[in-house]
Amino acid sequence: MLTRKKPVQGAGVAALSMAALLVVGTAAEARPDLRKMTCGQAQAMVKRNGSVVFTTGTHTYSLFVSNYSYCDPGEQLFTQFGPTRDNPKCPVAYECREPLFERRGFRRW
């Protein structure tokens, strides 16, 4: 008479947990650190990829975009500066933000 062995349930859960940790670890490592790049390298990376999420500090990150197509309706492009290896205030690319005031009907000059 043959007996069937029960599958070990703990091993499956452990393997799944390890796979999830690897994915999370890889995602965090994949984000480029703006502070370790030169200003030119950061600008070229955004231009090449269209949008990049850079690590900007110990616990901070930010999205940099190359053009308006990455913005939601109603948002505008604003120059976004970041700390690079060679420039503490490098104009890396743009960020999408809602304008503080609408431009319609407001004429300054």
Short description:
The chain is α+β, with helices and mostly antiparallel strands. The chain has helices at residues 9-30, 39-49; strands at 51-55, 61-65, 76-82, 90-97.
What layout of secondary structure does this protein have?
Elements: H1 9-30, H2 39-49, E1 51-55, E2 61-65, E3 76-82, E4 90-97
Antiparallel strand pairs: 1-2, 3-4
Q: Can you give a write-up of this model?
A:
The chain has 109 residues and is an alpha+beta fold. The protein is 30% helix and 23% strand. The protein has a two-stranded antiparallel sheet with strand order 1-2. A two-stranded antiparallel sheet has the order 3-4. The longest helix is centred in the first third of the chain and has 22 residues, at 9-30. The protein is elongated. The relative contact order is 0.15. This is Secreted protein. Residues 1-30 form the signal peptide.
- For the report, how would you describe the main beta sheet? 2 strands, antiparallel
Strand order of the largest sheet: 1-2
Percentage of β-strand residues = 15-25%
Number of strands: 4
Query: Would you list the SSEs in sequence order as H and E?
Result: HHEEEE
Shape: elongated
Mean pLDDT comes to 82
Low-confidence stretches: none
- State the share of residues found in helices, binned by percent: 25-40%
Number of H/I helices: 2
Cα Rg: 23 Å
- Structural class call reads alpha+beta
Distance between termini?
96 Å
Which terms would index this structure?
two-stranded antiparallel sheet, elongated, Secreted protein, 2 helices, signal, alpha+beta, 109 residues
